[in-house]
Amino acid sequence: MSRLILLTLFTSIAILPSAAQDKKKPTPKSEPRVIFSVPLAASPAKTTKLTLRGINLDDAKEVRADQGSVKLLNKGKAGVPDKNPEKVGDTQVEIELKLDAKFSGAAVSLIVVTPAGETKPFRVLVETKLPVIAEKEGNDGFRAAQAIALPIVIDGTIGRQKDVDVFGITGTKGQKLIAEVLASRLGSPLDAILTLYDAQGQQVASNDDFDKEHRDAKVEITLPADGVYYLSLIDAHDTGSNLHVYRFVVR
Questions:
Q1: What is the domain count for the chain?
Q2: Ranges of the chain with pLDDT below 50
Q3: CATH number at residue 56
């Protein structure tokens, strides 16, 4: 074989791509992340079913808690109502969280374990001092307002477009009222507006985004007279879904 043929052969071999080069490396999944939970809180001395919404949770192997015990029920892809997975997540994990009656603290910390890594600890609220009730639908006006006795914590949802949740209280002149929505700061897509009306339907106070760090609402006022008052909670953009969850503290 001539030197020219050998040189040509070696050159051809040298420029051939290797098998390893031909194989495209799979794109690694980004770090798993929990954005929020539905509902936003759990209860002591009970088993609470929670859905953790987030990014890259569909391969979850387990969920750990710093208190109590966790049972993994389901995992997978999740629908994205507003086509913005960074806002509401596109995967989810369903769990049962069981907490002891002697639970201490204001929250339980959860970590989702996946093949791509672990999520940062995610805090789920736990109320141990005030009574907690569920919002009851059909409360979309003054006449249908859900009556509540203070102090109280309400777990609810702005479940559809233009949904309004109204709560009725009986107050006395000089009484200090604090009503606070916890939603945006806990990852919920709800952008709350909270308005207080008197028995005649006149606006007494209103708030939208009381803190620059989130979009939650808070009303703090000394009631001007005895009588019935109504607290109205809506989304600032008139949006709503089963993901627009909130925790409403009134005291």
A1: 2
A2: 3-16, 18-20
A3: 2.60.40
In a domain, 11, yes or no: no
Q: Which of 88, 74, 77 is nearest to 36 (CA)?
A: 88
In this structure, which long-range contacts are made by residues 144-151, counting pairs with CB atoms below 8 Å and at least 24 apart in sequence? Answer: 145/230, 148/250, 150/177, 150/250, 150/251, 151/249, 151/250, 151/251
* 39 and 85 share one domain: yes
Interior CA angle at 30 toward 27 and 32, to 5°?
140
Residue 91 lies in a domain: yes
d(CA 217, CA 178): 11
CA distance linking residue 89 with residue 3, whole number of Å: 64
Which residues, including other chains, have CB under 8 Å from residue 149's CB and lie 6 or more apart? 169
pTM for the structure as a whole:
0.86
**CA–CA separation, 150 and 142 (whole Å):** 18
Task: Mark whether 211 and 137 lie in a shared domain.
Answer: yes
In a domain, 216, yes or no: yes
In a 13 Å sphere around the CA of 77, the CA atoms on its Cβ side amount to 3
pLDDT digit string (tens) for 69-118? 999 999 999 999 878 889 999 999 999 999 999 998 999 999 999 999 99
Full domain range(s) for residue 97: 33-126
